[in-house]
Amino acid sequence: MTGRILIVDDDRALCETMETDLRVRGFQVSWRTSSSEAFQALRNEAYDVVLTDLKMPGMNGIELCDRIVSNRPDVPVIVMTAFGSLDSAVQAIRAGAYDFVAKPVDMDLLALTLERALKHRALQDKVKILSEAVERSGKFDAMIGESQPMRNLYDRLSKIADSEATVLITGESGTGKELAARILHDRSRRREGPFIAVNCAALPEMLLESELFGHTRGAFTDARSARKGLIPEAEGGTLLLDEIGDFPFNLQAKLLRALEGRTLRPVGGDREVPFDVRVIATTNRDLESAVEEGRFREDLFFRINVIPVELPPLRERGTDILLLAGHFIGLFSDRAGRSVTGLSEAAAAKMLEYAWPGNVRELRNAVERAVALTRYERIAVEDLPERIRNYRSANIVIDGTNPDEMVTLEELERRYILHVLKAVGENRTVAARVLGMDRKTLYRKLRHFDAGGGNGN
Question: What's the rounded Cα separation, in Å, for the pair 158 and 183?
Fold first, then answer.
């Protein structure tokens, strides 16, 4: 590992000898014979490590170390002490020195010490970059990212957080829709109220109705006592209807009436109960297609889609992938008591190339696995799941010259439409926008492909 080393020693001949040896080993070396000159050089130029003698005229090594730690805490200082001088070594460490080496200096040992210091410096830089990035995105709590799609998302969330309007958050599975909903709640005037999340896909119709609206005693078998529903429990706060695309069709009219009138009727009840709740809904489904296909009520769709928020998929967020990976590496290495500090260049390249169909959730799981398996300080390609190691991006090649390999224009259109659909997670509304056609045209073409038996790639 190479880096810029500043040697400080009043023995000019020793400085020249060490410079020659370290340059052969790949280090970039400068030296000064005065502590004050060295400190000035450090202020004017960029150095990665300072190697200083302990005993020098004027400012000694301990004093220089103390000044460097106070002014440039990011630069590790290694102090050279006389052999066997344990007291001097302790003084140096107390002054903030990263390490010490004994004189006469063993150059092999010094090279290893410098490499450790450089790794320490590199890790500090990564932590600083990550901390600054997290701080910049920290205004949205645990949501991390600096890409333009995420900046646009932050701007939209900040504008609508204090609104009372219903919000529909859309995005592929694993993009963080519930996290976005929690951020909206935490930054709203209802932040002191409850945040109640209901998974609409996890409960059967009868149970979901009872959970949301509550029931009276004797409303159905086993209803031995009345129960308040989750909507009343969210009074004064926020109700999250997670995966509302799976909300039972037969219950959609009742939900619409409740949202319109801000009143509800418990199962088995005979009177309306008012409530004061802000509603946020999330879905990874294409609700507009569901409306057109008769699986979701159009009036309910318009009622929940007052303010739409679309979360970007991870594949569109560029180097946010590495920023998130760094965050998860720190999280899981701390939990496991391991010293995993980052990604190898090859592993980082693989992660940037991969399409991440499972988005942030998939990235988190992949990093957790890699931290547990790796034998190195940095995650290697072999530590990544096989699907990431062996991933090859899907390209549609049209520049072939062999007539036997060429396809018709209709077949090329079919392949490209199916490719775009796969890329956007089968969301037909988004696919139509990418393709530059209206949804009805896209549906017609898909029906034509099915009728012709062409549904492969």
Answer: 9
Number of CB atoms found within 10 A of residue 432's CB: 23
Locate 400 and state its tokens.
């072939």
**Residue with token string 């991870």:** 314
Beta pairing partners, 282: 169
Confidence of residue 457 (pLDDT cuts 50, 70, 90): very low
**Contact at 8 Å (CB) between 197 and 178?**
yes
Q: How many CB atoms lie within 10 A of CB 408?
A: 8
For residue range 354-374, what is the model confidence (pLDDT) as tens digits?
A: 989 899 999 999 999 999 999
Give the domains, in start order, of the chain with CATH numbers: 4-123 (3.40.50.2300), 141-310 (3.40.50.300), 315-389 (1.10.8.60), 403-451 (1.10.10.60)
What angle in degrees, to the nearest 10, is found between the helix axes of 61-71 and 35-44?
20
Residue 77 pLDDT class (50, 70, 90 cuts): very high
Phi, psi of 82 (to 5 degrees): -65, 145
Each residue's pLDDT tens digit, 106-156: 999 999 999 999 988 887 776 666 556 555 544 456 788 888 899 899 999
The pLDDT tens digits for 322-337 are 989 988 998 999 898 8
Beta-bridge partner residues of 52: 8, 79
By CB atoms closer than 10 A (0-12, 13-18, 19+), residue 161 is: middle
The gap between the terminal CA atoms of the chain, to the nearest Å, is: 46
Question: What is the DSSP track for 95-153?
Answer: TT-SEEEEESP-HHHHHHHHHHHHHHHHHHHHHHHHHHHHHHHGGGTT----SHHHHHH
Q: Cβ distance 205 to 248 under 8 Å?
A: yes
7 backbone φψ class: left, alpha, beta (φ>0; ψ -120 to 50):
beta
Contacts from 257-263 at CB under 8 Å and sequence distance 24+? 258/213, 258/231, 259/166, 259/300, 259/303, 259/304, 260/303
Residue 349, SS3? Answer: helix
Distance CA 311, CA 169 (A): 7
Whether residue 224 has pLDDT greater than 80: no
- Cα(59)–Cα(225) distance, rounded to whole angstroms? 82
Query: Is the separation of the CB atoms in 197 and 277 below 8 Å?
Result: no
The reported pLDDT for the residue numbered 121 is 84
